[in-house]
Amino acid sequence: MTNNSNWTQRQSDRWRTNLGLAEMLKGGVIMDVVTPEQAKIAEDAGASAVMALERVPADIRVEGGVARMSDPGMILGILDSVSIPVMAKCRIGHIIEARILESLGVDFIDESEVLTPADDRYHVDKSVFEIPFVCGCRNLGEALRRIGEGAVLIRTKGEAGTGDIVEAVRHMRTLMDDIRRISVMPQDALMAEAKEMGAPYELILETARLGALPVPNFSAGGVATPADAALMMHLGAQSVFVGSGIFKSGDPEKRAKAIVESVAYYDDYDRLAKISENLGEPMTGIGMNELPVEKRIAGRGW
Amino acid sequence: MSARPVGVLSLQGAFERHKSIIESLGRECRLIRTPEQLAGLGGLIIPGGESTVIGKLMKAGGLLSAIRDSAADGLSIFGTCAGLILLANEVTGTPVDGLHLLDVRVQRNGYGRQKESFNSKLIFRKNEIQSVFIRAPRIIETGPNVEVICRMDDEAVLVRQDRILAAAFHPELTDDPAVHRYYVEELC
C-alpha cells in the first residue's frame, strides 16, 4: 500500500526524483518520433527528449482505428539510438501498458488522450510506479486530478495532429486564468472551487499558495512553427511538445532546430524573425473549424 | 569588494531553481542567454538539463567561446549534472559541445536511466546533505589538480578545480542551500 493520504506524504523520495526529471526538461522541446532515425535527427536538432510512438497523431487521425501502445521492439530501438530521455505513451487507464513501458526502461510515460482510452472512468494510479508520468489537461481541475493521481508533469492538451494552435492556446489560457483566479481568492472560497472543478482540495490550496501548478507545466497539441512554440512559452508553458509538426513538415531537420531555438529565445523577437526564415513547408494541418466534434480527442480524460 | 551578481545559464533546464536559491542567499541573480550578459558577473551556474541541448545552444549563440574567455579572465563557474558534463575535459559516449575547463572524465547517464535515478545522503564539509541524482553523469577519473569535496561510496560526486565547482547531483532540488552558499561565499 502506498502511504499517500495527503500531499506532503505523497512527496516521497521517488516522487522528488521524478519531479526532478520534469524540472530538467524545462525550456526544451520534446519531439514525437516513429523510428530510431527520426530520434537521432531530433537529438541532433536539440530535442530535450523524444516521444517514441508508432504513428504521429496526424497519421492516427487519417488512418483511424484503435491507437495503442507502440511495439516494445520499436521503443527499445529508440532507447538504444539516443542519449536523451525517451518517453512513450500508454492508453488512458491502461495499467498494464504502463507497467510494460516501465519494464522497458523508458524515462517517462505519457498517459495520453492521443491513444484510444482503455478505461472510460479511471486513469492509471501513477503514484505506485517507479518512473514519472506526464498527463494532459484542459483546465486546472483536470490538471490537479492528474497530479493527485501522481503525475509529476502536466501538459495542456491542445488538439493533437491538427497543426492548429488555437486549442493549445485555449487550454493554456484557461489553465492560467484558473490559477490566477484562485490565487487571489480568500481561503474560505476555495473549498467550493475544489468542488466545482472536481479537484483535490489540498492541491487547490497548494496551487493558490504558489500561484502556479505544483509541478511543471508544458504545452502540447498543435505546434507547427517556431512562432507557435514561442507563443505557448509566452502564455506560460515551460516547455513544448511537438508531435506531427516536425516530421510532417517539408524539412524536419531545419524545423526541429528552429523550434528548439524559438523556445530558448521566445521573447527575443529579432531572433525569432531570423529563426523563422526559410524553413520550407509546415505541416498542412486541419483547421479546428473543419474538424467535427466527434473527431476531436482533447475531450478524452476524466 | 561588493558582491557581484551571479548568473545562471538559462538556455534550457532547471535554471529557475538555481535562481531562487541564489536570491534566497541574498545575492543578485541574472538569467544569462547571450555573451553580452556575461559582463560583470561574479560567478556563473550551468544548471541541470540536457547537456546535448545546452551545448548546442551555447555553441550556436557564441556562448561556448565567450564563457571560455570569461573563465580565462577568472570567472568562477558552478555546474550541476548537465553542467558537470559541459565543464568536463572528457566525456565518454555521445560527443557533447563542451567547455573543457575541468580535468575530469565523465560518463553520461553513468548510473542508468530514470528508473535508476536515486536520492542519497552525502557528507559535505562535515555536514550531512541530501542529494538527488537524475540520469546523472558519473565521474570516472579526476586529474591531479582536482579536489574531491564529496564522495558517494568511493566515487567523486562533487569536485573543485580552482574556480570551477561541479556536482554530479542536483543541490538545487533540495531545500538545503549549503552547496550554493559554499559556492557563493568561497568561489564568487
Strand order of the largest sheet of chain A: 7-6-5-4-3-2-1-8
Proportion of beta-strand residues of chain B: 25-35%
- Radius of gyration of chain B over all CA atoms, rounded: 15 Å
Oligomer: heterodimer
Instruction: Report strand order across the widest sheet of chain B.
Output: 2-1-3-4-12-11-10
Please give the share of residues in helix of chain A: 40-55%
Mean pLDDT of chain B: 96
Q: Terminal Cα separation of chain B, in Å?
A: 11 Å
Number of strands of chain A: 8
Largest interface: A-B, 35 and 35 residues
Helix content of chain B: 10-25%
Order of helices and strands of chain A: HHEHEHHEHEEHEHHHEHEHHH
Q: What does this 3D model show about the protein?
A:
The complex is a heterodimer of chains A (302) and B (188). By secondary structure, chain A is of the alpha/beta class. Chain A is 44% helix and 12% strand. Chain A contains 14 helices and 8 strands. Chain A has helices at residues 7-10, 13-24, 36-45, 57-63, 72-81, 95-104, 140-149, 166-183, 190-197, 201-210, 226-234, 244-247, 252-264, 269-275, and strands at 29-33, 49-52, 86-91, 108-112, 133-137, 153-156, 217-219, 240-242. In chain A, α3 (36-45) crosses α13 (252-264), α8 (166-183) packs across α10 (201-210) and α11 packs parallel to α13. Chain A is globular. Chain B has helices spanning 15-24, 51-60, 63-72, 82-87, 178-187, and strands at residues 6-9, 29-32, 43-46, 76-80, 88-92, 102-107, 118-124, 127-133, 138-142, 147-152, 155-161, 164-167. In chain B, the strands form 3 sheets. Chain B has a 7-stranded mixed β-sheet with strand order 2-1-3-4-12-11-10. The relative contact order of chain B is 0.17. The model of chain B has no long low-confidence stretch (mean pLDDT 96). Classes of the chains: A alpha/beta (302), B alpha/beta (188). The A-B interface holds A 13, 16-18, 20-21, 23-28, 43, 46-49, 79, 83-85, 102, 105-108, 130-132, 260-261, 263-265, 268 and B 10-17, 33, 48-50, 52-53, 56-57, 60, 81-82, 93-94, 108-109, 113-115, 117-119, 132-135, 170, 173.
